[in-house]
UniProtKB/TrEMBL annotation:
InterPro entries: GD_AH_C, GD_AH_second, SAF, SAF_UxaA/GarD, UxaA_altronate/galactarate_dh. It comes from Caulobacter segnis. Belongs to the UxaA family. Residues 19-90 form the SAF domain. CDD domains: SAF_AH_GD. Keywords: Lyase. SMART domains: SAF. This is Altronate dehydratase family protein. The keyword Lyase applies. Gene3D superfamilies: 2.30.130.110.
Length: 502
């Protein structure tokens, strides 16, 4: 084989032998002849890198396959060599569907080598990857107060713990029913997170989300490592806050890292700013990590329910029981009704950035996204604000929004988050968040954002070798190595606003 032929052969990448399309690994020029396993394919038009080229004919009305599953329906005849995108493929999604319980046997894996990370053992038995003081608030009225306390505390107590961080939000007042409950559950869950060696919880005094009611609803919070007060009842909330943080620092600074098995690691799985390579490189790579963690007895957590639409059956057939299947269907259908009740189509996704990166339909985005969950059995389904229980792959109710879903992952107990991206984002969240680029161009362009380059699997590195390297980074991060987002001071939360505002 000549070098020219080799370069041509590596220009497009089909995922499954049944597929109608392949991903362009570089910009393709109209008239260029490509070699796909001895089959010549002529690009009929210019096709951008990351977008799809037809490698099989699809007639109008026929399902178009990628990953071996339908990503939409052809609206016109699609010839071999055509650019396949929003102009000739439309979604098949319409509304709530019926699902049948047809479980598949879990795929066997090889023996998992025993691994450990250096973490913090907490009183409730959970393991943390950081030893920080978190300043939380019941209501947005004291959000800036929380920020000011954290800023001064970091100056005053520098080096004694892993840092003091405020996680403000705009909610907690003028909320009713489930909307108020969502806010209360999220704050309570964060207050019991194992990465927090101490928590200061601020209230205002007159808000709907009353401090006492929040604490009464959360018996799992370690009261020895909690300080709280309503700011309307003290003379100087800043000094009282700093005194409370100092008391927490005096407790937390005595904590020491110790070896903890990976079986106690909770790993959040998230993608944001996806592109045409996300489902080819970064997401399946993270799926390998999810399998490694699950096989070791740990807990990978998959969320972003709207980005399951169109790929439900890939996940549902791995439900460990009929009960888990029914719970997963309930979460998926409830989210579809949430769209319908708000007069929105369930397929109003992907985003403009996703489309520019080569993703055509929600089905395509979802089929790429669910690969982050690997191949492990689905053993638990959580509603928004709930926390992980049994070890194994877990599905968590939350929207696709990066900040909202990553906050929900943290509240569920994630102590490390793996965040795949094809477009890039600086955002970081309470749990250390590793940004994994789907393409090497992004990793090279934004080294201050990206922790790991999954694009290397297109440059000769095997998926298995890349997964071993990424797993090493996960263990190092759990043991204290700072992520790029942490180094940049990117630490945010966002709460799902799902109801009316008074």
């Amino acid at each position: 084989m000549t070098e020219t032929t080799l370069a041509q052969r590596e220009s497009i990448h089909p995922v499954d032998p049944r597929d109608h399309v392949a991903t362009a690994l570089r910009d393709l020029v109209a008239g260029e002849i490509l070699d796909l396993h001895g089959q010549p394919i002529t690009a009929r038009v210019d096709i951008p890198k990351g977008h799809k080229i037809a490698i099989r004919f699809a007639s109008a009305g026929e399902d178009v396959l990628k990953y071996g599953w339908p990503i939409g329906r052809a609206v016109v005849d699609i010839a071999v060599g055509d650019h396949v995108h929003v102009h000739n493929v439309h979604t098949r999604l319409e509304g709530v569907e019926g699902y049948s319980f047809a479980p598949t046997a879990p795929e066997p894996h090889g023996e998992v080598p025993a691994r450990a990370f250096d973490g913090y053992r907490r009183k409730n038995g959970r393991a943390g990857t950081r030893n920080e003081i978190w300043v939380l608030c019941t209501v947005g009225c004291v959000a800036n107060t929380a920020r000011r306390i954290a800023e001064k505390a970091n100056q005053r107590f520098a080096g004694r713990v892993d840092g003091v961080f405020a996680f403000p939000h705009p909610f907690g007042c003028s909320q009713l029913g489930d909307d108020l409950s969502h806010t209360r559950k999220l704050i309570a869950a964060l207050a019991s997170h194992p990465n927090a060696g101490g928590v200061l919880l601020l209230g205002l005094g007159c808000e709907n989300n009353q401090l006492k009611a929040l604490l009464d609803s959360a018996p799992e919070i370690d009261r020895d490592r909690l300080r709280s007060f309503t700011t309307q009842m003290v003379e100087d909330e800043l000094e009282d806050g700093l005194a409370a943080v100092e008391a927490l620092v005096e407790i937390a600074e005595r904590d020491r890292r110790e070896p903890i098995p990976v079986s106690e690691l909770v790993v959040g799985l998230k993608c944001g700013g996806s592109d045409g390579f996300s489902g080819v490189t970064a997401n399946p790579l993270v799926g390998r990590i999810a399998d490694k963690v699950a096989d070791a007895g740990g807990t990978p957590v998959l969320t972003e329910i709207p980005e399951v639409f169109g790929a439900e059956n890939v996940l549902l057939q791995r439900a460990a029981s009929r009960e888990i299947f029914d719970e997963a269907v309930g979460v998926i259908d409830d989210f579809k009704r949430y769209f319908i009740d708000n007069n929105q189509p369930i397929y109003e996704n992907p985003s403009p950035g996703n489309i520019a990166g080569g993703i055509t339909t929600l089905e395509e985005k979802s089929l790429g996204a669910v690969q982050k969950g690997g191949r492990a059995q689905l053993v638990e389904v959580l509603r928004y604000g709930e926390k992980v229980g049994p070890h194994g792959l877990t599905l968590l109710e939350a929207p696709g929004n990066d900040a909202v879903s990553s906050t929900a992952l943290t509240a569920a107990g994630a102590t490390v988050i793996l965040f795949t991206t094809g477009r890039g984002t600086p955002l970081g969240f309470p749990a250390p968040t590793l940004k994994i680029a789907s393409n090497s161009g992004l990793a090279q362009r934004k080294p201050g954002w990206i922790d790991f380059d999954a694009g290397q699997v297109l440059d000769g590195v095997s998926m298995e070798d890349a997964a071993d390297r990424l797993m090493d980074l996960v263990v190092d991060t759990a043991s204290g190595k700072a992520t790029k987002a942490e180094l940049n001071g990117e630490r945010e939360i966002a709460i799902w606003k799902s109801g009316v505002t008074l």
